[in-house]
Amino acid sequence: MVDSDSTILDVTATDADAALRSARRVLETEIGGLRALSDTLDGGFSRAIDLIAAVSGRVIVTGMGKSGHIATKIAATLASTGTPAQYVHPGEASHGDLGMITANDAIMALSNSGETAELSDIVAYAKLKRIPLVSVTGKADSALSNAADVPLVMPDSPEACPLNLAPTTSTTVMLALGDAIAVALLERRGFSPDDFRLLHPGGQLGSRLTMAVDVMRAGDEMPLVKLDSPMTETIIEMTAKRFGCVGVLSAAGKLAGVITDGDLRRHMEDDILAMTASEVMTPDPKAVSENILTAQVLAMMNENKITTYFVVADDVPVGIVHIHDVLRNGLS
């Protein structure tokens, strides 16, 4: 008599093993394609970056089918990293959307075969208007490669599909090449964290790109005393502002020191209430600038095991950041 439960378990285990083998085969095949891409990149890639960086308009990215889906993602990556870009569907281009492409633009056309018929009108338009054309294909000797001002040719790598038919490795390599182009242009333009922050205000990425100035407490919320302030007043200020510390200002209004709960404990046996802030403070305290990323502030807090930083401009305190302010902003 057959144990049906055992049979089900055996079949399930066998299917799971087969699925894992299939997944690893796909990944290894695609990794091989990426390695081949890295090994075969040459001066053509640099020329493509030069061409794109020189245009004053946008990068029009186009492709059909699976290449079209990759083109959409590449356009989005370019746009989010400082290179204005737009996807144009080649079929729609033939029915009026060529008007989206100007003489100030560059075109990046994607086709693994290099023979995609739907791209012919965009290619012809590029030639007519003398619009720079970069191609990304899997065939050096193809219509699209031959028409391009700069042809980028992907390595001849097998598809991960066991039939070697479904676009898998080719689309992965195409996507990675688009990422490489976007990052090379980002670095060429000196795209800064401030630039990135401007284009990514939402979501978790946006929270990681906020600056200290965005989360700091300023004005009367800062716990501040003078060098000669009695410790009786200093402790009242610390207690009222609830940051567990107080900044000590020099005569010029600069941050001369900080007094923390730890400093109070260290001076408890020294008749602390008869002392002044300058006698208890820790001089030359760590501080941050207004334009430091809150993610960096959090890293510094963790590294130095402190929960509060004063924010300074030319050594003058302009705000204070507590770890709770950083965490409320979505960082962890």
Summary of the model, kept short:
The chain is α/β, with parallel strands linked by helices. The protein contains 15 helices and 12 strands.
Keyword list:
12 strands; elongated; 16% strand; Rossmann fold; 5-stranded parallel beta sheet; CBS-domain; alpha/beta; 15 helices; 332 residues
Record the SSE blueprint:
Elements: H1 4-40, H2 43-54, E1 59-63, H3 66-80, E2 85-87, H4 90-93, E3 106-111, H5 120-129, E4 133-137, H6 143-147, E5 150-153, H7 169-189, H8 193-199, H9 203-208, H10 212-215, E6 224-226, H11 231-241, E7 245-249, E8 255-260, H12 261-266, H13 277-280, E9 282-283, E10 287-288, H14 294-304, E11 308-313, E12 316-322, H15 323-328
Parallel strand pairs: 1-2, 1-3, 3-4, 4-5, 6-7, 10-11
Antiparallel strand pairs: 7-8, 8-9, 11-12
Helix pairs in contact: 1-7, 2-7, 3-7
Percentage of residues in DSSP E strands: 15-25%
Q: What characterizes the major β-sheet?
A: 5 strands, parallel
Tell me what the CATH architecture of the largest domain is.
Answer: 3-Layer(aba) Sandwich
CATH class of the largest domain: Alpha Beta
Q: For the largest beta sheet, what order do the strands appear in spatially?
A: 2-1-3-4-5
- If helices are DSSP runs of H or I spanning 4 or more residues, what is the number of helices? 15
Q: How many domains in all?
A: 2
Radius of gyration: 30 Å
Average of pLDDT: 90
- The named CATH superfamily of the largest domain: Glucose-6-phosphate isomerase like protein, domain 1
Strand elements, count: 12
- State the order of secondary-structure elements, H for helix, E for strand: HHEHEHEHEHEHHHHEHEEHHEEHEEH
Structural class: alpha/beta
Give the overall shape.
elongated
CATH topology-level name of the largest domain: Rossmann fold
Instruction: Report how far the terminal alpha carbons are from each other.
Output: 57 Å
Helical content band: 40-55%
Low-confidence stretches: none
